[in-house]
Design a protein that fits this description.
Order of helices and strands: EEHEHHEEHHEHEHEHHEHEEHH
Number of strands: 11
Helix content: 40-55%
Radius of gyration: 21 Å
Bound molecules: zinc ion
Distance between the termini: 15 Å
Largest sheet: 5 strands, parallel
Strand content: 5-15%
Number of domains: 2
Structural class: alpha/beta
Shape: globular
């Protein structure tokens, strides 16, 4: 947990239990979730499966249609294509098939042993650290993609037999807001990820996926930030160096004239941009650092405007009691932003409360789908769960 007493910590605790009790602590701040978890690893693991890399539909690589089908907005990153081609080449050269297991992105068996050697050698050979980092991201994404192909629904990232898409009701987000899901590769195509709900609901232009370390994605995001200007970019992150600002602080401390100005210049082309860091708490520090470094390049100062959710009366307490998650989930952060903006008189007419409710409903749908899957697979939802990272 974030221990600094001065920070408001947004923490939701959902437990698997017969009574489906729900609790929400009152002092809250959004922060990416912790990494101590692993209900995912036990609850939603599937049997090892061979990658469908030779599927004729994909021609041994990845098409734009498939790439964007998973929620991405960028062109297919050449580095991801290269990794996939290298994997395929290796499969042709050695007598072992590519087999994935666990949560979809983990190679297994003999192929894994061979591939480990190969990718480590490639990594070492890359000169600069940025290239190494990009390769690291691209490889993880390529593996998750190959391990999920033909197995997960592209839209909801659940196994096809548990697809929940028909229960999601799309909704329009007020055009003055754009969410960015800055997602760690390890969270890409995770069944329990909640960031994906945002673009399922609002569309990829209103809630956009940006994969950490994928330069094509990061470029799109930063171009949008440059166009919008620094005053319209906010990262939901507890910035430990300064007193955290809430949505109220950030937007109501301005004089009404300024605020009118900020919001009246908020148009479809120049929305308020909110970055939600979609990764574990341990990964998020590096993700935030990368955002700050880029901010320095773009705006000449490292300070990236951050906000925290006040959220005592967050939407979440109204959520119907549901099984299990702990800490914050990414979609809950979006709910918090929408609800807190709704409280500002200048924002009250944009229907943000209804949009927050739509996210809430989608979260419930996801939880029900995950619970149904767990039950179908013969896993109790009443079992004492030590690690509660079920949804993130
Ligand atoms: Zn689906």
């Amino acid at each position: 947990m974030l221990s600094s007493a001065g920070n408001r910590v947004l923490t939701f605790t959902f437990q698997f239990s017969p009574s489906l009790k729900f609790s929400a602590k009152t002092h809250k701040e959004f922060r990416p979730r912790s990494h101590n978890s692993s209900i995912m690893n036990s609850a939603f693991r599937s049997s090892p499966r061979e990658a469908q890399v030779n599927d004729a539909r994909f021609g041994g690589t990845i098409t734009l249609e498939e790439w964007q089908g998973w929620g991405c907005v960028s062109p297919v990153p050449p580095m991801v294509t290269e990794v996939i081609q290298d994997l395929k080449l290796l499969e042709n050269n050695i007598d072992a098939h590519m087999v994935f297991g666990g949560n979809g992105g983990k190679l297994q068996g003999d192929f894994k042993i061979q591939e480990d050697k190969k990718h480590r050698a490639k990594y070492q050979a890359l000169g600069d650290s940025e290239k190494k980092f990009q390769f690291f991201s691209a490889r993880q994404i390529a593996c998750r993609l190959l391990g999920s192909r033909g197995y997960l629904c592209q839209k909801c990232w659940l196994p096809m037999e548990d697809c929940m898409c028909s229960n999601i009701k799309p909704c329009s987000l007020w055009h003055g807001i754009r969410f960015w899901l800055y997602m760690h590769p390890k969270d890409f195509l995770r069944q329990n990820n909640t960031g994906k709900l945002l673009w399922q609901l609002f569309g990829v232009q209103a809630a956009t996926l940006c994969l950490y370390g994928i330069s094509e994605d990061e470029k799109i995001m930063w171009n949008a930030f440059k166009d919008a200007g620094k005053a319209k970019v906010w990262c939901l992150y507890p910035n430990q160096n300064i007193v955290p600002r809430t949505v109220q602080d950030a937007f109501s401390c301005q004089s009404s004239a300024d605020l009118e100005c900020t919001l009246s210049s908020t148009t479809r082309d120049r929305p308020l941009n909110f970055v939600l860091i979609d990764g574990t708490w341990s990964n998020s520090a590096a993700m935030f650092r990368r955002l700050k470094e880029r901010a320095k390049l773009v705006w000449g100062e490292e300070d990236l405007p951050c906000i925290s959710l006040a959220a005592g009366a967050s939407a979440m307490h109204k959520l119907r009691p549901q099984p299990s998650w702990d800490r914050t989930c990414t979609a809950a952060a979006a709910i918090g932003v929408l609800e807190e903006l709704q409280l500002l008189p200048v924002c009250s007419s944009h229907g943000l409360d209804k949009q927050a409710k739509a996210v809430e409903d989608a979260l419930v749908v996801l939880l029900e789908a995950l619970t149904a899957r767990r039950l179908r697979m013969g896993r109790s939802i009443t079992r004492k769960v030590r690690h509660t990272r079920n949804i993130c």
